[in-house]
Amino acid sequence: MAKCGRWERLYQQALQSGNKEKALEFKEKLVECIVYSLWNLVKEKELREAEPLLKYGYEIAEKYDIPELKFHLGLVQEEIERIREIYRKLGRGEKV
């Protein structure tokens, strides 16, 4: 989250200064940071570590009205639920 927070701060600054071009660039970087970080955690089955980033992503999507982020977060959440269901069926816990 800390690395994604950097993009959020830059996005906020660009919005406040009225620099629409930079704001768009930083918004894209922020979305990419959150989504790619989440998918990496899911790929490594680090589901517990993904939860706070998923929550942060939803907060960002709401705060800045970013529907494409919400869409990607929904896909990640579905995958997390799918993996957890498989683990439940196998009687295993996920990695910490």
Q: In angstroms, what separates the terminal alpha carbons?
A: 17 Å
Give the biggest sheet. Answer: none
- Give a count of the beta strands, DSSP E runs of length 2 or more: 0
Oligomer: single chain
Please characterize this protein's 3D structure.
- The protein is mainly alpha-helical and 96 residues long.
- It has one domain (2-90).
- Helix content is 84%, strand content 0%.
- It has four helices and no strands.
- Helix 2 runs parallel beside helix 4.
- The longest helix is centred in the first third of the chain and has 24 residues, at 20-43.
- The protein is elongated.
- The mean pLDDT is 93.
Write the layout of secondary structure elements.
Elements: H1 2-17, H2 20-43, H3 47-63, H4 67-90
Helix pairs in contact: 1-2, 2-3, 2-4, 3-4
Key terms:
4 helices; elongated; mainly alpha; 96 residues
In short:
84% of the residues lie in helices and 0% in strands.
